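Notes from hallway chat w/ T.B., transcribed later so I don't forget. T.B. wanted the structure written out for a chain they're using in a teaching module, and asked if we could keep both sequence and structure tokens in one place. Agreed to drop them here.
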Amino acid sequence: MQLGLIGLGKMGGNMRERIRRAGHTVVGYDRNPEVSDVSSLHELVERLDGPRVVWVMVPAGGPTQSVVDELAGLLSPGDTVVDGGNSRWTDDEKHAEQLAAHGIGFVDAGVSGGVWGLENGYALMVGGEKEHVERLQPIFEALKPEGPYGYVHAGKVGAGHFAKMVHNGIEYAMMQAYAEGWELLEKVDSVTSVREVFRSWQEGTVIRSWLLDLAVNALDEDEHLEKLRGYAEDSGEGRWTVEAAIDNAVPLPAITASLFARFASRQDDSPQMKLIAALRNQFGGHAVESSP
């Protein structure tokens, strides 16, 4: 199958490679000419046979809207656009309507896997009409982890990004719980090896998880996280999750508290945020700030 892929950053570049390894043809475009296969979106579209499929992996908001606007003028009826970035689900509805006016299908795909996805596969949460989703099945199969899990057609347009948003909200709360436990263990004199306590939890405990494994990786690199500043950004989905909870009158005390904890990290050098910053760097390659 042929696929156009726009945005070849940390995730997009690895996705291109994983899809190619599965035997598909990927024509990639990025503003960085060193990683791009073509020099423009126009050339990307010209290189694909119809009906075309173009997957967008650029930042949410203005950058995604700009790409959708350009594709609306370049693609033909029967083509399909996939937004695999972290767009807000309400934007998906607008993009689907905009492209439908040109006879172009639209699918939203929440993608989780970070910098590890190339080897481990990406969890995919997809929204859109059945006919558009089914066209993309070979690409979804190439990207997802091996085995029966890691992919879901979650529902209508917007459902994929809504599911990914909630996934990221849960991720906030899980990371916060690990970080709070780590800080408490570090604080007491009786525990002399916090890193090894975390390592012992990796097998046989009810709190074992991939995030715990990544926490141990981070502590192996910097046992007391002394090289990091206790500062962690929020990428948007946590805020959107809390806003959706308010709109739907659903109580989310743990997720809301974890979001506010990140805000607190911007006021002081928070010990908890050192572990959260380390975890975000481990699974997503997110930037960290060094301790002064």
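Follow-up for T.B.: The radius of gyration is 20 Å. Might be a good example for the class.
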